[in-house]
Amino acid sequence: MKRFYKQASATHHPEGYGVSLDDKPIKTPAGKLLLLPNEKLAKAIADEWQSQGDTVVVSTMPLMQLAATTLDHVPVQRADMLERLLAYTGTDLLCHRVDEPKRLNELQKRLFAPALEWLHRRYDIDLHTTTELTAVNQPESARERLTQALNALNDWALMGVQSAALASGSIVLALGLQEKQFTASEVFEAAEVESTYQIEKWGSDIELVKRRNGIEDELNAVERWFKLLG
In a 3-state reduction of DSSP, which class is residue 9? Predict the structure, then answer.
């Protein structure tokens, strides 16, 4: 899309904060006014628009994408989102280990243990681990307490948790990122431990680097999203 505006700026409406392009308020793809929860997020999204060149590249505006998706989809899809996130109780990355090679097993234990220990301290949730390829049958109490934790999140935070879970393969890491217990770098290190091991052993390739960079960028964007939300 060719750039059609000169100035992007954060604005304040009676309903909340927004972003305007040459004094014209931005709307979401579904036609909703882009109303944001605070001025910091509005300014950050305005900066994304202002930093565009002659061509507007939406993929380079992750905060705008998260905000629009929150407004357009989360209110009507919240129940489905919760179910998808709760499904991680059986497939969470942190619950699946390998027996061999031993080096990878050691790396998984070192990187996964802090997150599972935090989950226990924070929510009194203990997740079983396995070396099998099938989903883990977790205690019903784990699902119940995760349900409570997710229900307590507003739409903006839930959007970030879903994005982080999709990027990392872990609801535990996603919640830890949302609560600022782990950095995006730490989440990436845990999420990509197997591919990092494979790179160290066999080397990398262009597609693998591209995939890892995409995950890292997504996690960094979500971390910033959470910081701006406060």
Answer: strand
